[in-house]
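Title: Prediction job returns without error message
Component: structure pipeline
Severity: low
Priority: P3
Assignee: unassigned

Description:
Job completed but the reporter wants confirmation the result is attached to the right record. Sequence as submitted:
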Amino acid sequence: MRDVLSTLTRDVLFGPLDTPGRTEAVVNRLRTAVALGVLADGAQLPSEVELAAQFNVAPGTLREALAALREEGIVETRRGRGGGSFVRVPESLHVAHASALLASMPPPEFRDLSDWRAAVAGASAELAAERASDQDVGHLGSLAGSLAAAEDEATARRFDARFHIALAAAAQSRRLSTEAINLQVTYAPMLALVYADPDVRREGGTRLAEVADCVRAGEAERARRVVTELTSDTARRLSRLRSRTAAPGTGTGREAR
């Protein structure tokens, strides 16, 4: 299942784009691939022609996206023999991107994405409790433990993302898995801000371990309730942070939950 999930994650992150604002969409896809560890530090990207074809964008759009990533320090381009574009993972990547995303997101969009994340996680947990294999459950427990032991927010955010993707995979639903991966682009980067607190990292790992235990015991309703409560608590934490960091003109409105 993990090999299938890895393939699906790549398929989603490097699949054709069908949304406007394609330069920023390419940037977000590649940034998310780095954050999830799909693209490791030092990895060489495909050629510009190949990558543009994968995303179904014009070569100029792809070059603009790579230029933006170079400015962020995420991509390094080398010329000559053995040249190409290579991944770099600056320590500031996750927090800087999370802060910018949270501050710029309008309240209705933040609330809608928070609701959708809770819905996808809840449905995944409920179905996983009915369908997960022993291997799936063991993997979920391992990811929860890794989150609790994470030493920084970037690592914690990565294990949180992998847990939710693995939970959807354990539900044996390709659609839920695809949505769980999509949420890593649109919402999950902001979790780096929540996981800056070591206590929250430990609490998050403990509560995800409880979800894994519910899945193991086949307690579908409880699994849904626990993961939904956790995602709702996370949204409230982010909402409080957002009220202090919202960009001028976005307004505070009625925050999520």
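Comment from assignee: result matches the submitted record. The two ends are 34 Å apart (CA to CA).
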